[in-house]
Structures are given as structure tokens and as C-alpha cells.
Amino acid sequence: MDDDEKGIMYMVLSSAFFALMAATVKFLGDIPLAEKIFFRNLVGILFGLFMVSRNGKKIKVNNVKLVLLRSLIGFFSIASYFYAIGQMKMADAVILNKTSPFFVMIFAALFLNEKIKKTQLFSLSFAVLGALFVIKPSLSSEMFPALIALSAGILSGISYTLLRHLRKSESSETIVLAFCTFSTLATLPFLFTGKFVVPDLREVLALFALGLFALLAQFFVTKAYRFSEAGEVSIYAYSNIVFSVIIGIIIFSEIPDSLSIFGGSAIIMAGFINFYASKLRKAGRISTADETKTASNRRATKAS
């Protein structure tokens, strides 16, 4: 198995564990939102501290304001996502959350001066169309959770944009531990004001499974990007939608309607368009570089 195949395998595994995380959130329906977020991040803190002590690394925050901002936005993103999963079909919430890469395009263009290509605009229009079919705009109360799920995608897009900037000054361990610690502390006031529900044994196991699934998902996605370039494996992250649909049908008897299926397909198609356009641009750059190198060699040969 070559590195690209390993990268694809790890990305698919990551998507499966993200789907299991969402299913666990759905399963813990009677547990308060703050409690779910607390246990999801507590496991992350424990593992993060273990890895830091094992590798002998020091945690140092260089850009305190941006790290705190990223942690705050990440907290609201996960809170919105968990809320939406509990209020609507799991697959629909996952589909809307998967719009985040397209919002990264927008925010990276606005704040990081990254140019949006024509093909990216085309894929963005597909993603917006898909989101509208899943949301099904109306004046009914059912639309509210869908808008919350979409806001989770938007907030994730902002969070990932901040990560692009923070990678220049912060280690990944610092960012992850800061986020997990911030989210854990932010939920404490809710837990100490009568909002804590004492879980039974089954729910305790599920709460720790929630943190473990999230941790494994992050671990495998990190491994995927270590073996392959982001442009080569990012498209396989959309397998999360497929896993979520299957789990939703088998465990929760949630069958997506035709509009959600069409919307999800449009968003996946948007991902494919962006993926292949990126590959073509990369191939073009390599071809141009090779031609330049060949021309340079020819000139050098003539000169000699």
C-alpha cells in the first residue's frame, strides 16, 4: 500500500468515526448539550496532555488573542452542530455541516487575501443549492434547526480559516489543547447551575465513547494529511455523509427524503468539482515548471 492509499484509508476511517460521534450525540438525546460538549472535550484534554508529556513538548501560546478567538468560534460551532443533531435527522445535520470547506473559500478570500478561482465559484454555487434543498426554506419551526446546522458549517469555516493563519505561530498541540480546555471550562457554569444530569452506566459509557470517537476521528484525519497532500484526500471526507445516512437508517430509522438526497448529492458534487479543478491546476503548474526547466536547460546547453 503506497502513501496515497494510506492517506485515503485514514480519511475514510476518520469520516466513519465522525459519523459515529454524531450518532452518539443523537443517542444521548436526554443528556444536556453542555454535558455532551464537556465530556467530548475532557477526553481530548486528557489525551492531549498525555501526548505532550510523552513527547516532552512544551505548550506555549504565542498569539493569545487569535487562539482564544479560534477556541470561542470552535466552541459555538460544535455547540450548534450537537444541537442540530439532536433536533433534526442526523444525516441532514451532517450534510449542512459539510458546507464548511466552501465557507473557508469565502473567509480565506476576505481575510487571508486568497483568490477564489472560477471553478471554486461554480462549486460554491452547487454547495449553496444543495444546502437550500436540505434546509427547505419555509416559515415552519422545522427550519430553525437546519439554520443552526448551517451556522455550524459557517462557524467551522471561520475556525478553519483561523487555523490556516495560526499554523504559522502555534503548534497543533497548543491549538487542540487550547480549544478543548476552553470548551470544557465554558460548559462548567451550565453544569453547576442545575443543568447536570447524572448519567446511568449506559450513558456514562456513551459519553466517554463520544470523546473517544471525536479523538480517533481527529487522529485519523491528521494521519491522512501526513501521508497524502490535502488536495489528494480531502474529497474522501465527504464519505462522512454516506456513513451518517447508513447509521441514521439502521440505528434511528431516519430515512432522508428526496430533497435531502438531492441536496447532499449537490454538495458532494461541489466537493468533486473543487477537488478535480485543484488537481488540474496542480498538474498545470507542474507542467509549466517542467517546460521552464527544459527551456532553461536548452539555453544552458547552447551557451556551453
Automatic annotation (TrEMBL):
The keyword Membrane applies. SUPFAM superfamilies: Multidrug resistance efflux transporter EmrE. It comes from the Bacteria. Its main location: membrane. It is found in: Membrane. The chain crosses the membrane at residues 7-25, 37-54, 66-84, 90-112, 119-137, 143-163, 175-192, 204-221, 233-253, 259-277. Residues 6-135, 145-273 form the EamA domain. Keywords: Membrane, Transmembrane, Transmembrane helix. GO terms for cellular component: membrane. It is a multi-pass membrane protein. PANTHER family: ACYL-MALONYL CONDENSING ENZYME-RELATED, SOLUTE CARRIER FAMILY 35 MEMBER G1. Belongs to the EamA transporter family. This is Drug/metabolite transporter (DMT)-like permease. It comes from Halanaerobium saccharolyticum. The lineage of its organism: Bacteria, Bacillati, Bacillota, Clostridia, Halanaerobiales.
